[in-house]
Design a protein that fits this description.
Order of helices and strands: HHHEEHEHEHEHEHEHEHHHEHHEHHHE
Bound molecules: S-adenosylmethionine, iron/sulfur cluster
Shape: globular
Strand content: 5-15%
Largest sheet: 7 strands, parallel
Number of helices: 17
Oligomer: single chain
Length: 413
């Protein structure tokens, strides 16, 4: 049995091309296939998906309750990664208590729960209680971690809590590249930790957590795209997800990490060739999306804004809500869900104003223009639908196809 032979997103996702679906649409749909397959098959799931889908299609300023929560279980971190704004963030630092988590979770009972935002989730001792609690309520739970703190007992707790997906942030295929980016981490130790978790899963006969690797592509690691795919395939037998570098609020240090398009294109082509030769079609799709997103980001235009603020609410460890995780280091006041409630904050005046400005689509916030989510498959599907079926415009508040990527000020300002 190869290491990590429990199903990876690659196993569950796109291994083969499908002749019936146009290739471009198929690649876009692949983004959604895996998360949908993980949901429990019951009437509540069906109802919530329908409600969320309609809310997105309608895109009115007032939205149905979120089907997903992104909760910052920990706002503290043990590393200082070069591209990350978390260590310098001006807001308060701390970890969420289980009682606060439960108050938020019980009000929403989301289909999806992410427990990472700007810190390292494994630094919160209540994390495993949160995961177990959410899993007991049928929620799909994922975690993004730097994996520096996965010793044997943590590996056991991760498996026993029934966490669904663990995304390990590994920004290089070599010690030199990785440690130059992830300041404070040790490459060999992190690789050993991930292997230890894979071994724990094997010992317990567990199929979860499904492990995948996240890589933020920057000037410092772009040359290792192919090597990272090969490394993760041989060492962990797992999928790789390349993420475009996001620029937080005109930060010069982050801008210096941006990679030029022709260099990116060359290394993406090499990575794709290797992935195609090994049948890793989800990686091929991800690399196409990476290039597409980065091109759009650099051009500063978008066919239209995303659907995230109709589906997901990001919440900091101390209960402050944001319209999107990319705004979490901007001093905004959208309300505190622990002081009021998720329902109140979700349709507060600032939230409604934010959604309206996205749906109007004429002007986008800088954060949105920098984001790979501003033009993904679901948006395109709805856009195609309203073009083919014009009466759809009567119930949708969204204006498709006329965004020119103008920048505007902070929401709520
Ligand atoms: C903020 S971290 C929090 C979780 C954990 N501490 C970790 O490093 O995985 C979540 C993810 O965001 C990524 N990230 C950090 N800075 C980024 C940036 N400027 N652009 C895009 N992704 C970034 C990290 O690499 C990581 O995969
Ligand atoms: S990317 Fe993760 S590990 Fe690195 S500084 Fe940011 S929060 Fe910490």
């Amino acid at each position: 049995m190869p290491v990590g032979s429990a199903k990876s997103p690659g196993d569950m996702g796109m291994k083969k091309k499908n002749a019936l679906i146009p290739e471009r649409l198929f690649k876009r749909l692949a983004l959604f296939e895996f998360p949908l397959r993980m949901l429990p098959n019951n009437p509540r799931t069906f109802f919530m998906l329908l409600k969320g889908g309609f809310s997105v299609f309608r895109s009115s300023p007032r939205a149905a309750m979120p089907i997903s929560l992104s909760i910052e279980s920990s706002g503290v971190c043990n590393l200082r990664c070069k591209m990350c704004s978390a260590p310098e963030m001006s807001r308060r630092k701390g970890v969420m208590k289980f009682s606060a988590f439960r108050q938020i979770f019980d009000e929403v009972r989301p289909l999806y729960l992410g427990l990472s935002a700007a810190g390292e989730p494994l630094l919160n001792r209540d994390l495993f209680d949160m995961i177990s609690y959410a899993k007991a309520h049928g929620t799909v739970v994922n975690l993004v971690s730097n994996a520096t703190r996965i010793d044997e007992s943590t590996a056991l707790a991760l498996v026993e809590s029934h966490l669904d997906v663990l995304k390990v942030s590994l920004d290089g295929a070599t010690k030199e590249t990785y440690e130059a980016i992830r300041i404070g981490a040790c490459f060999e130790e992190v690789v050993r930790n991930v292997k230890g978790l894979i071994e724990m899963k094997r010992r317990l006969g567990a199929s979860s957590p499904i492990i995948s690797v996240n890589i933020v592509i920057s000037r410092e690691n772009v040359h290792e795209i192919r090597d990272i795919i090969a490394f993760c395939h041989s060492q962990f037998d797992c999928s790789v997800e390349f993420i475009p570098l996001f620029i937080h609020d005109k930060d010069a240090a982050e801008e210096a990490l941006l990679v030029d398009l022709s260099t990116l294109g060359r290394h993406v082509a090499m990575g794709k060739k290797w992935a195609e030769e090994h049948g890793l079609w989800d990686t091929v799709a991800n690399l196409d999306n990476l290039l597409y997103s980065v091109e759009r980001m650099y051009r500063g235009t978008s066919e239209g804004p995303c659907f995230v603020p109709w589906l997901d609410m990001p919440i900091t460890w101390d209960g402050n809500a944001y319209p999107c995780a990319h705004f979490m280091n901007v001093p905004l006041d959208f309300g505190n869900v622990l002081e009021t409630s998720v329902a109140k904050v979700w349709n507060s005046p600032n939230y409604r104003k934010f959604r309206k400005s996205l749906a109007d689509g004429k002007e986008l916030y800088k954060q949105c223009l920098n984001c790979g989510m501003n033009d993904v498959g679901l948006y395109n599907l709805f856009s195609v639908f309203t073009r083919c079926f014009p009466p759809g415009r009567l119930i949708s508040h969204r204006r498709y196809g006329d965004s020119q990527g103008q920048q505007q000020g902070w929401p709520g300002s």
